[in-house]
Amino acid sequence: MPRKTMPTVPRDEAVALYREGRSMAALARRYGVSAGWLAARFREWGEPVRGRRAAQRTRRGMSLAEWRRRADLPP
Asked: How many Å apart are CA 64 and CA 66, to the nearest integer?
């Protein structure tokens, strides 16, 4: 069976969308790859991957600084 070619994901576009708040799962669907594969590429590119808590805050529209302020945590 022939080997599949590596999918091409536009790095700058994917990173920009992720920074705007799109989820890893949504981006993976958009580019036809798995979320795990895409997260590995982000790590290779040096882009921090949000954990579950940060993703939930992002979905709620809060920045990390705002969440920390509301939760009364140090910056």
From this structure: 5
17-53 pLDDT tens trace: 888 888 888 899 999 999 999 999 999 999 999 887 7
The beta strand positions in 1-75, using DSSP E, are none
| Separation between Cα atoms, residue 35 and residue 2, nearest integer Å | 24
List Cβ neighbours of 43 (8 Å cut-off, separation of 6 or more): 49
* pTM given for the model: 0.67
Task: Note the Cα 73 to chain centre separation in Å.
Answer: 24
How far is the C-alpha of 41 from the C-alpha of 18, rounded, in Å?
13
Concatenate the DSSP letters of all residues of 32-71 into one string: TS-HHHHHHHHHHTTPPPP-HHHHHHHHTT--HHHHHHHT
Place of tokens 């669907």: 29
